[in-house]
Amino acid sequence: MLKRVYDWMMRMASHRHALWWLVAVAFIESSVFPIPPDIMLIPMVLAARHKAWRYALVATAASVVGGWLGYLIGYSLFEVVGRPIIAFYHLEASFQTFQSWFAVNGGWVILAKGWTPIPFKLITITAGFSHLDPMVFTLASIGSRAMRFFLVAGLLYFFGEPIRDFIERRLTLVTTAFVVALVGGFFIIRVF
Question: Which of 62, 93, 165, 175 could crosslink 23 through cysteines, CB 3.0-4.6 Å?
Fold first, then answer.
């Protein structure tokens, strides 16, 4: 089963519309979607390593623009849209913690947390709800998302084939590690 999903993702990564799928996933992950853009970025870079930097730039831009949707949800639509999103992911306690962090160090919180497995939607919605300065939000989002996506793209660019071989030989292990990191990100923010 995992092998079929992996093969499908690799085919999609080299599909002529793959870049648009990356844009869509990076955009909506920043405000509502649970799956990180890495799910598209990684196989896309593995399929066309010479486009790694372009893909990282596109993922960064789409994520930052999508982050603005999350910011607007937090700023203007929190009761109608934001609170249900936070509740859906069981992030109520983390939302409270992030609010107190944003009151003191909003931009630094985005820089520190925006490139980790912590769901970016929590960061963007909380930033909007906290009325973080829009320029600080934008610059910190660009910095944190660029760090994340360029790091992933860079590792795959420089070590692509060995990493690809490792993934293909140990697909179950890699998938398990990815899920653990994703769930761990949600767990970390629930604890703090």
Answer: 62
